[in-house]
Amino acid sequence: MNKIMKKSIIFLTIFFLGFLLTSYHFFKKSVSAQISCPSNTTYGDTWATLVGEIQSNGGDPNITAWFEWGTSSFNLSNTTPPQSLYVSNPPKRFCDQISGLQPCQTYYYRAASSNSGGTNYGQTYSFKTQCMTSLQVSCHASPNPANVNQPVTFYANVSGGTGVYSYNWSGACSGTSSSCTRTFSQPGTYSVTLTVTSGNQTQSASCSVTVNQPVTPPVVITLPPISTL
Q: Which structural domain range is residue 14 located in?
């Protein structure tokens, strides 16, 4: 093999490796660009989306970023999974969602990043999760009392929670709507149990109806006079 061929092979090998490396960085950059983050940290009652920003790559665009968080600014013991970012043109935003938080609780968090030059941390901020009101559940029957074979409707009375509810009736009436209707063929007292779920809260309540045999007018007849013939 002559020298010219050897040089050609070396050149092609270097060119191919350079092409693979460039394609790899472009792929990483493209994947990172697909992640859409809000402009600032957002939160609800049991979740939060933490947002940070790489403002400088420090001369090495291969960056690992994550968040540290907790219920005390002195003990950020929780961390999000590390994200591998290729930041050739900062600034670049990154984010991650945490869940399972407690309503009405203050949480602290900070962004962190590292490259071949070391690790750096952002400022520590805090937020207070939204306070979920207590779920209140009761029910009632109408009409009450009712007569045999008269339609009776059980109604749910619900407040609090998230404002979105799922219903489950059991016992003397079954269904999954906010009301449940049926008739009863025998006198007696009939009870139902209503279970309502809203967010991560579930409450139950019971109510009953008294069913009576309807009272009918008395039977009366008119007797004819005694014949005198």
A: 1-34
Residue with tokens 């001369």: 59
Q: How far is CA 182 from CA 29, 114, 172, 174, in A?
A: 62, 66, 9, 9
Nearest CA among 152, 154, 148, 151 for reference residue 195: 154
For the ranges 1-15, 91-105, 139-153, 181-195, which has the lowest average pLDDT?
1-15
CB 153 within 8 A of CB 181: yes
Does 183 share its domain with 118? no
CATH for 47: 2.60.40.10
Strand, helix or coil for residue 173: coil
Name the pLDDT band for 194 (thresholds 50, 70, 90): very high
Higher pLDDT, 162 or 79: 79
Q: How far apart are CA 81 and CA 68, in angstroms?
A: 10
H/E segment holding residue 210:
strand 201-212
Residue 24: the pLDDT is 47
CA dihedral 8, 14, 17, 18 (to 10 degrees): -120
For residues 185-194, give the mean pLDDT.
Answer: 97
Query: How many domains, the chain?
Result: 3
Q: Residue 141 in contact with residue 183, Cβ under 8 Å?
A: no
Greater confidence, 116 or 21? Answer: 116
**Element spanning 75, H or E:** none
Instruction: Judge whether 93 and 37 are in contact, CB under 8 Å.
Output: yes
The Cα–Cα gap between 102 and 190 comes to 39
